[in-house]
Each structure stands twice: as C-alpha cells, then as structure tokens.
Protein: PadR family transcriptional regulator
Organism: Phenylobacterium ferrooxidans
Amino acid sequence: MHRHFSHKHEHRSRHGFGGHLREHLRGHGGRGERGGRIGRLLEHGDLRFLVLALLAEKPRHGYEVMRELEERTGGAYRPSPGVIYPTLSLLEDEGFVVPIAAEGGRKAYEATAAGKEALEANRPSVDAIFARLDEAAEQSSGARPKLQRAMQNLSTALRLRMQRGGVTEEQVDAIAAAIDEAASKIERV
C-alpha cells in the first residue's frame, strides 16, 4: 500500500523498512543498452536496504559503499556522498549500524544485531532490490562508467588527502609523481 502526500512529501510503503524497486526500469538515470536510458533504480527507502545489506556483509566506509554499488550495477548507478553519508547517519540513528575505526582515519560502519534482524525481516524486498541491480548491471556497457569511477577515485583521494592538511613538499612531489606515472601508463595502453 502506498500513500503519497505531496504537501508533506510523505511516502509509505507496504514494506516495513522502506520502499522497493520499480517494477521496470524507465525514465531518467544511467545509460543502458535497451532503449537508451535506465530509469531510477530505487524507490524511497531502498538505499537503506542496500547500504545495510552491504554493511552486514562486511564493515565498510562510505566510499567503499559507493564503489560497491557502482560495481554491482556495472556503472549504471553510483550514489553520491551527499546520499550515502546521510543514509549512514540515518542507519546509525536507527541503531542498525555503528561506526568503527578503520584504516587511514576513515570511519567505517558495521551492521548491528538489530540491523541484521531488520535485514532478515525484509529479506524478500532486499533480494528484489539486488535482483534489480543485477539487471541494471547486465544492461550497462560498463566501460565508460569504470573510467569515470577511476577518475572520481583519484579526485576524491587527492581532495581528501589535501583536506587533512600537513602535506609536506616531499609528499606533494610523491603525489605528483604518482599521477604523472599513471598518465604515462595510460598513454602506453
């Protein structure tokens, strides 16, 4: 049962934990091979399921969640940090995930017992969401999104490192050398 109240932007789903994927792919979104464009892959609340399921598999930080979702869709869907990090905060507020210390100073998250219970209680919906992502991956060409992801990875890593501050001239030289080396390898491919 769905109820939409446009003045309040309220959405209720027949699923206790959130929405479900659209029955078919249409509208706006990533590119696919069938008819040009893949529609919006997720309904309201579905991203919570996906993120929680990935964290139940193993602890991850936000960037790893974004990368994993992009890989599972063959590049058809890549959530932005502005979507993933609020979702992680919401899951934490709900008691479904907890932050843990991770390598490189990034905050990783892992699913709690309550999160795993919620996930299992909604297993049919979760499986349907992942099936839809698999379908999107099959429709995606994959080559260009992989390159876009790699470029975004580099940009994000460089931005995060510079934001941490304390970068010495030696480190700047090492970073520049690594980028130059990568560029040189790309030219030889």
About this structure: Helices lie at 46-57, 62-72, 81-93, 113-121, 123-139, 143-164, 169-188. The first strand starts at residue 3 and ends at 5.
